[in-house]
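Late entry, evening session. Most of the bench is empty. Finally got around to the prediction I had been postponing all week. Sequence below, unchanged from the version circulated by S.P.
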Amino acid sequence: MDSKFSLSQFSKLFPDEASCLEEIKKQRFPKGIHCKSCRKMTRHYRVTGRTAYSCKSCRRHVYPLSGTLFEKSSTPLRIWLFAMFLMIHSRDGIPTKQLQQELGVTYKTAWRMRKSIRMLMEQDDADLLRETVTMEEIEYREHKWVFFNKFEFKLVQKQEPVPDDEEE
């Protein structure tokens, strides 16, 4: 996601739980799902009422949320992704109380979600800030957060050049 990713774009991209699960599936299995039972790439279909996909050939279930912070959460995926959106787009971090109000969840849930997301954002030497890149005298800072080893949020910020007399 870049810095121009807006709330309306978020709403279009993730209108419901199914679209959130589908996006996670695409991020975790970009080349398709390899069925461990069939031992080949097979077509998988969504299992109604579950966060699982079923192999067309052998009917074995694959759970895209397994091994992620969403795995045993009863909080809807759309709320998790919206919390990530809010945390990425806030300058100084979003307080738990504000996150609670924005998401419409309990304080305890907002605190747990914020803590889990912050922990992921701080992995690999805090904030995953990449080096400053200079392109045609314009500096950019790239912020990258990778969730559950596949789902990547990226924010590129334009840095204002510092005048020579203010450097000291």
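Two things to note before I forget:
The beta strands are 34-35, 40-41, 44-46, 53-55, 61-62, 133-135, 138-147, 151-159.
The longest strand covers residues 138-147.
Will write this up properly tomorrow.
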